[in-house]
Amino acid sequence: MNELHYLFNPRSIAVIGASDKPASIGARTLENLFDHSRYDGSIYLVSATRSELRGQRCYASIVDVPQTPDVAIVVIPAQSAVQVLQECAEKGVKFAVVLSSGFGEAGEQGQRLEAQIKQISAQSGMRIYGPNCPGACNINARLGMTFSPSFPHDLRPGPLGIATQGGGLGRNLMQAMERGIGVALWSSSGNEADLQVADFIDYMADAPDIKVILTLVEGIKDGAKFVAALQKAARNGKPVVALKVGRSEYGQRAAASHTASITGAAEVNSAALKQLGVIEVDDIDELIDVGWLLNRHMPDGRSDIAIYCSSGGAAALTADIVGQRGVRLTEFAPATVERLAALLPGYAAIGNPVDTTTAVLSNEQLMDSTLLAVCSDPGVALVLLPVTIDYGTTTEKMAQAVSRVQKESPVPILPIWMSDRNGKAFSMYAEDGIVPAKSIGKAVKAVRRWMDYGKWRTQTHPQHWKPWPTLGRAAPQGATPLSLSEGNAKSWLAENGLPVPRSALATSAQEAVREAAAIGFPVVAKVSSATLTHKSDIGGVFVNLRDAGAVHEAWNTIMENVHRHAPGAKVDGLLIEEMLPAGGVEVLIGVSRDPVFGHVITFGLGGIYVEVFKDVTRRLLPLQREEATAMLGEIRSSALLEGVRGGPSADVAALIDVLMKVSDFVGRHADAIDEIDLNPVWVGPKGEGAYVLDAVIVGRQSDDEAARR
Amino acid sequence: MNELHYLFNPRSIAVIGASDKPASIGARTLENLFDHSRYDGSIYLVSATRSELRGQRCYASIVDVPQTPDVAIVVIPAQSAVQVLQECAEKGVKFAVVLSSGFGEAGEQGQRLEAQIKQISAQSGMRIYGPNCPGACNINARLGMTFSPSFPHDLRPGPLGIATQGGGLGRNLMQAMERGIGVALWSSSGNEADLQVADFIDYMADAPDIKVILTLVEGIKDGAKFVAALQKAARNGKPVVALKVGRSEYGQRAAASHTASITGAAEVNSAALKQLGVIEVDDIDELIDVGWLLNRHMPDGRSDIAIYCSSGGAAALTADIVGQRGVRLTEFAPATVERLAALLPGYAAIGNPVDTTTAVLSNEQLMDSTLLAVCSDPGVALVLLPVTIDYGTTTEKMAQAVSRVQKESPVPILPIWMSDRNGKAFSMYAEDGIVPAKSIGKAVKAVRRWMDYGKWRTQTHPQHWKPWPTLGRAAPQGATPLSLSEGNAKSWLAENGLPVPRSALATSAQEAVREAAAIGFPVVAKVSSATLTHKSDIGGVFVNLRDAGAVHEAWNTIMENVHRHAPGAKVDGLLIEEMLPAGGVEVLIGVSRDPVFGHVITFGLGGIYVEVFKDVTRRLLPLQREEATAMLGEIRSSALLEGVRGGPSADVAALIDVLMKVSDFVGRHADAIDEIDLNPVWVGPKGEGAYVLDAVIVGRQSDDEAARR
């Protein structure tokens, strides 16, 4: 049983701050519990001022309550709540649901109070839900531990678990019930003094009545916990659809000020969600679109759909948007074409999109038979049904036909309610659970995500996932960053099995010539310094040095250039390196330490592709080999690795090996590594390997290995 | 007066095919005219079977009608319509509105009939509207020349002109009246036997009661007419918002089969619309979003907005989406901050986004004063107001406050109705013309487009536009394409003032050496042949030839390579060319002939940027110098022209000159040029010019100049 089971399904509840003052949060909480819930357990009322309410005895304190309730709902002002929570903890209450505001969100004083209740929770083991939240609505159990005056309208139970932080956006999702959405449970974690969104995702991943989890996250307090919850959901086969605020600077700033939590880098958040199979959406209504589709039918990896419509224009427009999103239209089997041709008038379009023309509007049987024919085509994974206009009765008959056909076919039919007139037919779809999308664009976006999830699901095996080790998430305390020189960085990499060109550090011109001869001409000469990062910009790099004279000259020129352009730089000498042949592809591999998710690896093609087109892909570390392989195909310029215009294809196997070795390297030295920048990594033609040509490592002094360099 | 004035405002109307058979199109047309219009002119009924209808005399034929009506509405079957239209033309009827179907959309027989009515129109000058369309709804004049049973519900007059082809999508737009949209006129051009969407845009550009034009186009029959209408709208200061079907292959195919017209290349359509100041949208509801915003307030080029919200979560989410779309949040003036700080509780967020907290929900006056403070900030061009939840009465009071403030401030307040519950407050916004957006994403998209239009409008002077000459839209009949050799292409370009490297054609190794010496070493040698396009792929190009020996050797090797890899190629010799110094940027300039819009110029950085990232920009020709300049900044890799990592900036002036000269060149030889591909064009550092290094021209034999090469 999940450890939060009795939070959402308590055997007994105490309300601390019970009241009958109209519109007070105390009174509203009682109304929701007594009048709008169907709760069988005991409810104890605690009030400092009343001895009786609703004909039931009130206790002066939780201490006096004869039983130890599973849940105490706290609705008294923040100031007094601390003492009361201490009493609850001492009493052995399992969960305190703190609806009161005036904590972390309300200035310094509130932050002090929040720190105190955190401590109570940590010391006693009593879990705290909130504070500053509207509470929890267990719709399937018909239990509202909430002061929201809207709870009486939350009447549609169902398979969706909704986990939000804020109350406003969560309630917005609850109002999607009007579109036909059935909700199992809505948790709203508020300030997250103790329990976080991640805890509720974890609960929902276990809950047998929840099929799909929707979450709206402003800030992630504990990255490791969040990842673990998502891993559990994936293992239990439950899709998670997420909207993460903080994808732009404005959003990051606003979310940080709203929830006082770190939002992390948007690209890293998105990469992490994707890696964990979470479906990330762009807007709040899209949570519903995708979540409900997943509930209706779990996608099986197929990606061809049909469009069925009685308006030729809408059929064409929908097909257009389908094509723009990279969704494919099924080429119907001959039997389907034959059937449609036999049933529909000659001027109807029986290809895909199907334009039935208005013929079906006056002939329900025709609608049934043709729509069923489309659903029965073996290549159709889903049918989009744009409802262009609300025609009243005609549109209602159409809705009935769709419901009938849907009962006979497992292929989901997704109506698109295009009109701004929400007539009776709209409600008919909603009541039958055939939740309409609100625009063609939104519908197609949802279908694309549904399909992508289907592909992910059929290709990924979360059962094989290892628990996520949260590599070096927090930098070790007290350690200060330390940049390694290129030579030191490369030899550390080489010790860890990473391929680097043969090289040697020369501390004089004579030594440089000697080392070059030992390595074999041509060579590259680079200034060696831990403080200079853009070595070539100041004339610190010479390539293609073909003889001793050239190496000697390079020494003089580089030293002169450094002296002139970076007079204070600490120079160790020149790094003399083997020069790799022309014809390779240059890529970039980076590692950074995200404040939420820990070490993240970035891969892309070098130079301008990264700077201008931001053509990179990312993964949380450690990397699985399949993921490393997938990364290569995810960048838009991946064609360059396959060889352009008849050129040779790159040594992809060697590149994957480098990625895996970087992952292992970071795994071994997690605390010591803040940042790695391997740019470029040279990838030769097939069979010629891949080599790290330049390397920057920013480490931590506290680590012995980093420090010794 | 626009030539279509009496089509939409007829002084008299004849209905041919008048009927009272329930639900027939004849009866419905009469109901709309007599019962649901407020029409003062004369209506004549023509019926082959009835002598009287609605107590009014029926004529057996249009010939018998005592007056010549401005408009004849034809609702009889296609077969009989041809004869009747001939009679109408002879009678002198100005406009025939043909509602009947069974023409071009209905197979070969229908296409024959459509050809016949086209001919009647062309010969007589009588304009035909339709066929196969639901008719025209002049809402401001309350005149429905339509059989649509929905016309009685089209009750909200207003400032929008809607021009569609299909009926279904047009009617969908009409149902946006539920969201508060007021429509002046909806024209639906159907099969466009004569009058096209472009004619109606032209009419709307002149109509004094129309402020904004919305159009939904599946296919453009006459590109020149379409461009001219859009130019007129721009000159008259009327924004046009367009949804063009055919942006994906599926859409192109479906639209072509639906309307039997050419859709053209999506990129070219989008470029043409953008160039003409048309706001292109992605979905049908977005037409309304942007159109209504433009009607409410014409943007002035400012691009900073405010977010005002009572939910912190929704404020953060909206800010996030605003940031993702590149819209900016105003930094409030000190006076605004002071005012908000004085009014709102301490825990509210008074930056931008403004999170009032729920304090305003119970205090209307507070809402008025704080919202007005935000609207009054000098840097705020628009206020986004996310309405997260439908709270019933509370939400209604909020809507009233918004209406009050909107009356006091010219700054548009755009509510975002986020809930799926469309309660009374929703209608209150609609009734007050404060049309809510349907999702945060859609709202922000609309705002971004509104702003971009504002910028375009303040920076562009359509008054200075020349009439569009439709350069070589159709290829000359009977002419066959002709590829020019690189040498011929370049000398034709050179004659037209385009800079090419010095070069000469050598027909022997000896001549090659001689010419190289005359040009000056180093040189480039390329095989010259009109039939070989990828010369370097077969070893037909050698660069950096430093002496006579190298040139001689190049001759032999190239001839051998061509012999081996392209044995059938017709070879003229070797092109010996001046070699330009290293350090330039390589760009691509192309011209193609679009079937709808004629010659289009494409510009981008060469090589992989074009192939992988499709990083190009386009314009219809001829090009204005400002446009050429703008093109350089529009590609994502434009930073490369400004110099990367301290490198020199490119000779941008020379590049603009090349673009203008290409435009002039095409202008002079429009019929003779199908395609130009200048790739690469070498752009040197500032002051060093730009040169066409390689050129492919596909011309037309019928043109003397092309033929002589």
Architecture overview:
- Two copies of one chain form a homodimer.
- Chain A has five domains: 1-134, NAD(P)-binding Rossmann-like Domain (Rossmann fold); 156-296, Succinyl-CoA synthetase domains (Rossmann fold, 3-Layer(aba) Sandwich); 300-459, Rossmann fold; 502-578, ATP-grasp fold, A domain (Dna Ligase, domain 1, 2-Layer Sandwich); 585-707, D-amino Acid Aminotransferase, Chain A, domain 1 (2-Layer Sandwich), CATH 3.30.470.20.
- In chain A, 38% of the residues lie in helices and 21% in strands.
- Chain A is built from 23 helices and 30 strands.
- In chain A, strand 28 (673-683) and strand 29 (690-692) form a beta hairpin.
- In chain A, helix 10 (284-296) crosses helix 16.
- The longest helix of chain A is centred in the middle third of the chain and has 20 residues, at 440-459.
- Chain A is flat and about 100 Å long.
- Chains A and B meet through helix 5, helix 8, helix 10, helix 11 and helix 16 of A and helix 5, helix 8, helix 10, helix 11 and helix 16 of B.
